[in-house]
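Suppose you are handed only two things: the residues of a chain and a line of SMILES describing zinc ion. What would the bound structure be? This form records exactly that question and the answer produced for it, so the two can be stored side by side and reused later without any lookup.

QUESTION INPUTS
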Amino acid sequence: MSNKTPTPDLTIHQKKSFQRARMSRDARFDGKFFIGVVTTGIFCRPICRVKPPKEENVRYYATAVIAQQQGFRPCKRCLPELAPEPRLALTEKQLLNALLIHQGNVNNSAKHCQLSERQYRRRFSLSFGVTPNQYWQQHRLLSALKLLRNSNLSITDVCFASGFNSVRRFNEAIKDLYGKAPSLLAEHVPKEATNQAQIKLPYQGEFDWPLMLSFFALRQIKEIEHVTDQQYARVFTLDSTSGYFTVIHSEVPNEQALLLTVHTDNFQILPTLISRVRKMFDLDANLDIIHQTIGGNENIRKVIERTPGLRLPGCFDLFEFTIRAILGQQFSVKAATTLAKRICVAYGLPCNANPLGMSHHFPDNNRLITANFDGLGLTQSRISTLKLWCQYYENNHQIFNYYNHIDEVQQELVKLKGIGPWTVNYFAMRGLSDPDAFPSADLGIIKALSEKGCAPKERIKNKEILALAQQWRPWRAYAAIYLWQSLSINE
Ligand SMILES: [Zn+2]
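ANSWER OUTPUT
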């Protein structure tokens, strides 16, 4: 085994808990750490079905990338490249996101994080135990392996989609590390290049797909989305590449996976698109742990019993989501959706023809920043807030990349007229998939936590709600979504 870079040391406590987790194949730890086996040179997920190796032959690693960088190869039985993405600390997530967005370019990643290149390298190495370059090399290889095994893409498309620039170097790198040419690793029959890619997105635990779809159906803007009781579809633009995608649940019995089909002529956007779709449908959540933390409340417990697969619906595009959240302040879902649709038609660009009849892209900030929002049925104060928000977003959207706790963002944003704590927490809860965001002033939450049928005056106070929510940390966003759901049980 190569041992060039020291990995961050584990505490004895961590080691003990990892040891217990791997002996019991505890699924709650899947994606949280990986096991390198010195005697075989293979690394596994904690859930792997192979006979557990002796402790003295085992090394623990925080990510698959690091295990691979340390010279281990991914196990063919548990497929570590498919493990759920770990929930990283916020600063680590920011460092890593920048590297992935800028395709391994350290200079641009450093700028993105507003750090010098030296600071960026130093912080990255301290957080991950490997340099940004090493991380990127291993990350592309694992992304390629994932696409080879889980998509119908041609070898050339997998090569570019995973961040390689030359097919020859891609073939060499794959062969060097995995011992086989890409075509032999691919489970699918590689097709000629098409403009349609199918990718399997695995998840673990319960997942109520119909409930997730009904949430999006209620908020559907038909110009940009198409939601049925089986499928979610929408158009997208990413880095000036556009297209549309559909998501259905796998039809293979007992297979825990969504099937994503992407229609586009440039697959380089795939890694970004996949991670957005995973977030949108909350595929990396560990519901067991979340239920244990929030299940003490009686209303929430009832929802867990009835719909244990309720997950946190996210969003595909943050800017679009913030506009829709502002429109949703003190409005019904239906009214807010109607207004969002009008904005979409008035300012959005038309999209390419598609069989689902979607006609527009939601306008980005470049288009909305000059909009006057006249004639759409919006009040003057709502228009002022939208204008103020577009201006603010233009200059400050980085705030969403660097905050440590949502309270910091709240302090900044509530200075804008028309933006209150509810909006900020709703941005964070669904726009950023921040699991601890909590719109405590939400009417639904107030209703769910108050005595049934009590007068408005008797309702639970905001202070009491916040105090109660302490016990649900760091999963208050889930408490919120479960409390909303509890209203539909009681009605
Ligand atoms: Zn394994």
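WHAT STANDS OUT: The radius of gyration is 23 Å. The first helix runs from residue 12 to 24.
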